[in-house]
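for the record, two folds in this file. i put them one after another cuz i was lazy. first one right below, seq on top, structure tokens after. the second one comes after a little note so u can tell where it starts
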Amino acid sequence: DYRVTSPAVLEGLVQRSVVAPFEGYLASQRVRAGETVEEGDVLATLDDRDLSLERLRWFTTHRQRLAEYDRALAEGDRAEANIIRAQIDQAKARIQLLDEQLARTRIVAPFAGIIVAGDLSQSVGATVERGQELFKIPPLDAYRVILEVDESDIESMQVGQTGTLRIASIPEQPLDYTVERITPISEQGDGRNFYRVEARLAASIDAIRPGMKGVAKTYVEERLLIRIWTEKFTDWVRLKIWKWLP
């Protein structure tokens, strides 16, 4: 059996970025990277004092306009009543918008998962911009394997191939996977060029977490032992001869 050996890392099948809904100040943080959360758990809160004061102002304006509207109707001034009615609708819309913003000051987890990025413990009281990433959360029950296949082995990889992964923290537990995607763009790292190959785990276990690393071996085909032992050296010799030929 000829198998392609490559470093591998576990990632969440889905990774959600939790961002700041609007510009403001960070009031508190409840979790940090490495902690598990359930759907709806509060991750952090934004300062809502300015929003609360603005809502109180618009609520007061709304009550005043209602009183003016009743007086205009009592006096039979239809034109004035229509104008005040439009102002009442504007105040109601503004209050609804502020209520929505107040609800969004509580930043909650979109689903159960683990915090893989985000530590705001040193940023309480600091400003946050709208759209600023605060946390990254992948789920705990859906993973993919990212294989870092060397450029010399990428020709042997195909979608649908199967293999076995062993994680450094639990080497006694083999995890089977199936190759699902081969990216056509190479990357560099640790002094070598490699391609990202995505694979799906056949089954998940409770002990694994996103970010765990290990070694993967992808089954390719049956080959002669002499070819397996000498193929890479032969390719290296061919390349060197080609390089130095006139």
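(here's the note) second protein begins now
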Amino acid sequence: MATREPLSAADRAGRADRAGRTRHADGIRLRIESVDVLRGLAILAMIAYHISFDLRYFGVTHSDFEHAAFWLSARASIVTAFLLLVGVSLALADANGVAFARYARRVARIAGSAILVSIASYALFPQTFIYFGVLHCIALVSVLAWPLRGKPRAAVAAGIAIVLAGLLLADARFDPRPLSWIGFMTHKPATEDYVPVFPWAGVGLIGIGAGHWLRRRASATNAAFAQSPRWLAFLGRHSLAVYMVHQPILLGALWVVVAQH
């Protein structure tokens, strides 16, 4: 029986590039497999964070998510990853010539999911329910950033300005809930998840620049992730569905475990 020689680096890069590009009847559509992997990694990090949060909710642990530097940094890193990938997706939508009507349907699914999150969180935490969390921000940023999807330099410049404004400016007039979703608040509102437009929209805009950079280097980035587990890319491709179902599953499983002890 003949033995198969190991793939060279060039062969792996070519295979990764073919995996990252799919041809359709309406032309060549670009899909960078590594972006799905990165989104999958962000989903895994989010699940790990929520497991830790749920353990505190059931009194198993006593982690200080509101003040401890580790948990604040972990949350900021996860939200940063998701918003950057929103911008990357916009850059790929531009490269593929995606019409706004088609893109709007996906944004509508995200917005609908955000509303469901608000309803569910109100049932669990009526005093601190999620009124503008990560899904709300992603839906809004996806619309606001659309005009800059093909202008990476302008998007990055605007993104940096928005991030700096959100971090450096504060005014007590933005503290009430009707305005706090914008940002600029002087203290974090009482809510289980809070991702205001300033500074987080800026991260999404910076992601547009990152997306165009990745698009120009699709072969190299796909090769770097060519050996990643396929289930990781699967998680990334179905990130919204995973986001919506993981917490009910985690809470239900932990309730069963905790109730038995």
